[in-house]
Amino acid sequence: MSIWNELSGIDYRHAYVETGDFRTRALQAGPEDGEHVVFLHGTTGHLEAFVRNIPAHAERYRCHSIDMLGHGYTGKPDRPAEIPLYVEHLMAYLDAVGAERAHLVGESLGGWVGSWAASEHPDRVASLQLLCMGGTKINPAIMERLKTSTSDAALKDDIAFTRERLRLLWAHWDEDLGEELTQIRYDIYHHPDFQRNLHNLLALQEPEARERNLLRPDRMGRIKAPTLVVWGNKNPLGDVPEAEAIAAAIPGARLEVFNECGHWPQHEKADLYNPLSLEFLAASSAT
Q: What CATH number does the domain located at 3-285 have?
């Protein structure tokens, strides 16, 4: 079994899109005249985080799972990656693919970026899904854990460190798919360009940078897009009360909590997430 078998029944394109000074790696699928749905991964993640979700969504929507700026095989600017820079890159991608508006699905860091984009560019965001989103708190212990585990995974040769970094995201490890994802991430992490840029990708794990990028209630209160918050009750990077506070801060937001689920609800509980997302998107498209 391979994660890429998930895509065997659909027509998809592995593409590189010119977005300003940097080209962006993307997985694109679905009808070209469909509403755009853009999937955004977490810190030091990559587009494969959404392989289990693309086929179901591509039946109706034009799907884009991208490596965000500095991540995966997308271009890497030599400066700290803070939220406005990610949003600028996202807008450049939307422009490059001719998407005036898009539904944004953001996991962890991706939700942080999506929320900021929705507050700054309400005309470009049709709806918003926040999957175990980060960015509303400063928790030094979690930040240090992310920084240390990611640095070990990227800078040490032993693939066990990459495996442990991925295990952090799951409540229950899937041996077969987990091992394949481990190899994919190991290859990305050990590319020289990624290693040189790692300190920039971890900038938001520093208290001063995180403070100036925090998603505060006043910013979340400006979000006008229909919003779905999805959480795992075993998310090691944030407890359920954090999700409840996010949903309370965003006008009209809906919260769904998956049991026995960690930090990757779209992957670990794809059978629950996909129909929930499609129902939400259909309702959002009708408004």
A: 3.40.50.1820
